[in-house]
UniProtKB/TrEMBL annotation:
UniProt key word Signal: yes
Protein name: Thioredoxin domain-containing protein
Signal peptide from the UniProt entry: 1-32
Alphabetical UniProt keywords: Signal
Amino acid sequence: MKGITGIGKRLISMFLVMVVSSLMLLTSPAIAANSVILNQENAKTEVLQSDKPVVLILVSKYTLEIFKTSLEDLKSKAEKVFDDKYKIAIGYWEDGLEISYGIPNLLKFPPATAVTVFKSGERKELGFITDPTLTTQVLEGLKSDFEKS
């Protein structure tokens, strides 16, 4: 009987440790403050009025569907390339965000993913992801170009 009770206590302890660890990740200020999903209400302020440089990523829902990827995957790749000195802002072309009107796009199908680096409300660098397998290379190139300028 002692053996079963001991195993039960250990399992409960492990479960509680996992829950607490997960909650710590969710509430981490670096993760929460480093990225934002854009909508009509926050797009302009999050990009143009940020104290950090902003990496604006505009992607089409069709592109995500065709290449079998997700907004979260794209955001995760951007967060790995850009450190906490940058804010990652992601939105959909289809949402007609006011901030997207000043961002050119390539005329192709599926629509290219535009990646724009803003600093103090001004567009500094622009690149396009046309092949999802090259996402990291495009992001690293933009970061390098931005930091050199």
